[in-house]
Amino acid sequence: MSVDETPHDNFERDLKPLWILAQHGDEAAYRESLQRIAGRLRAYLRRRLQDLPDEVEDLVQETLLALHVQRGTYEETVVVSAWVLAIAQHKLVDLWRRRGRRDKLHDALDEVDESGLVAQTYDGEAQRDLNKLLEALPRAQRQAIILVKVEGLSVAEAAQLTGASESAIKVQVHRGLKRLTQLVRKDRR
């Protein structure tokens, strides 16, 4: 190894030809690429998930699945490890978002104010109004808003569920919210 060459350079140098062969249909190269990537991902994610060691393997598998699904978007001019890292970082952020939502739901009972234990009354009128407004939207906008804004999914999760691209989901949410604002203003007049 030369002085200028780092272990990262070796990883990329060894991975790129395998990945290119895999992109052209070589199954053995694809398996070998994924094994090398999985090893690197485990090390990367272990460092970032020291407080959540049980999540590492799940996140490795989610990232490998995303690589498999997105492999058609890879361009040979891109550094393979950088492309993999970008996908892994998105999966890591998605995990933190999911955990954050989930963790906020699980306060210890000793820490909960007793008034918080009282059942909330269901406002059926507000739900009907929301449903009426959402029905006025085109299907794609309505679906994107329900998934991202009502159910709290990430844009990536909504895209995966619907088969639309992440940018299409963002556009649908933006346009839908803009249209809902117009509808609400119109109803106030």
Q: Kindly report the name of the CATH homologous superfamily of the largest domain.
A: RNA polymerase sigma factor, region 2, helix turn helix motif
CATH topology-level fold name of the largest domain: Rna Polymerase Sigma Factor, Chain: A
The secondary-structure element order is HHHHHHHH
Structural class determined from secondary elements: mainly alpha
Report the strand count.
Answer: 0
Fraction of residues in H or I helices: over 70%
DSSP strand content: under 5%
In whole angstroms, the N-to-C terminal distance is 73 Å
- Describe the sheet with the most strands: none
| Number of spatially distinct domains | 2
Report Rg.
22 Å
- By DSSP (H or I, 4+ residues per run), the number of helices equals 8
The CATH architecture classification of the largest domain is Orthogonal Bundle
Provide the low-confidence segments as ranges: 1-8, 104-110, 112-122
List the helices and strands and how they pair.
Blueprint: H1 7-23, H2 27-48, H3 56-70, H4 80-104, H5 124-135, H6 139-150, H7 155-162, H8 166-188
Helix pairs in contact: 1-2, 2-3, 3-4, 6-8, 7-8
How is this structure best described in words?
There is one protein chain. The protein is an all-alpha fold. The chain contains eight helices and no strands. It has helices at 7-23, 27-48, 56-70, 80-104, 124-135, 139-150, 155-162, 166-188. Helix 3 (56-70) crosses helix 4 and helix 6 (139-150) packs across helix 8. It is elongated.
Summarize the structure.
71% of the residues lie in helices and 0% in strands.
